[in-house]
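Re: folding output
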Amino acid sequence: MTKRSLLAVLAILCGLGLMLSLSAPAYGQAKPKDTYILKGSPMGGVKFEHKLHAERAENKCDVCHHASKPEKALDQPQQACTGCHTKAATPPMKTNTVGAFHKTATATAGTCIDCHKAENAKGKKAPVKCLDCHKKENT
């Protein structure tokens, strides 16, 4: 193989590699953002650090991203909570956004609070009081 044809092959391979790396989210699962601000609460937004939570859940996505329900199929494998749970529950959904995170009446139980309590029982430090998560500066 000549030097010129070798360079041509390398250029083609580099081009293919670049195309694949740029289009990877279209073929695989897109990497989530690291930090989200969950807005809408009058108490203040919640800064949610995805990487921290994924590490604590040992990268088992279904700890938070539950399987879809028969009433509403997922649009993607690990869909954002707000993809189904809207501010006001929209049929066929029965649980609104707040209810997806914690029970609205007392906020002493629910997905987030129960997990935080379990982490605290293991000696870790996870927030369980409203204003530990809800902060006005996050709005």
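--- second protein (sequence, then structure) ---
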Amino acid sequence: MKKIKLSERELAAEKALLRGEYIPAGAAEVRNIARAIAARRKDAVLNIRVNSEDLTHLKQKAQKLGVPYQTFISEILHHYAG
């Protein structure tokens, strides 16, 4: 069996799980999570032209947040569309 190398964060979560620090989610909570994931599913493609400086700034902000810039832009669109 291939051994998977876990990050420090993953190791901490695994140890907490083994210590019993997590409790199972109820069926209603699992359904709510599934609905939230489905609602955020990206099922359309959008091609737009933007100012290169704006895109550079968006990429820099996304990097500071530690997220891919396309995800960051998608979240901005979601915020203003909703």
